[in-house]
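Reading a protein record of the kind used here takes only a little practice. The record below shows the convention in full.

——
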Amino acid sequence: MAKRSGRPAKGDENNSREKIIDTTVALIRKNGAASVTVRNICAKAGLSIGTFYHYFRNKDDLMMYFLRETSFAAFTLVEPVSDISARIAELYMHLIRRYMDLGLDFMKSFYSTENKSLSAYMGESNGVFAPDTVMARSEKEIQAAKEQGIIDKNADTHEICMDICTIVKGCVFEWCLTDGAMDIEAALCRMIRSFMVNYLQQEK
């Protein structure tokens, strides 16, 4: 049974936080995202509930850790804005490689309709993407391409980014369905390029 109160011992802060994260990964891999509760995590990790709330506001806050750990605002991209399709594919591959590092079993359970933190991250609020997310960076890149005349001046950049996000979700889902056999990078690059051709000035 999880302890009810208490904070991490002095000097043990990082260890306790890592225990929570590692235990969450283990629970998801074994029983799926639905098995993750604050009580289950603390019981398995041997930590107090108070310790959990010292680091995370709630379960959803913890689950968001796996997505928000990396800020996409400062990523250096190699592909030029002039090849916006390749640049956006490169950007999203940073996110997808993070998924792959977590492992196939983890992703099969994490990438589900039951994971509300995933839908919150890979979406928008009042027509705006959350700061530092891959979608916010994607919109910034698309807007830069539009300002440089690479993308049609009448194109709705936010709508383009929403559609690309849907393409990415489909690729990740298919990767899970094929047990990781799908060449996700090749598929993503091909689909984004096919989609973006409709908006490129030079293709008109």
User: Anything to note?
Assistant: The mean pLDDT is 85. The first helix runs from residue 13 to 31. DSSP finds ten helices and no strands in the chain.
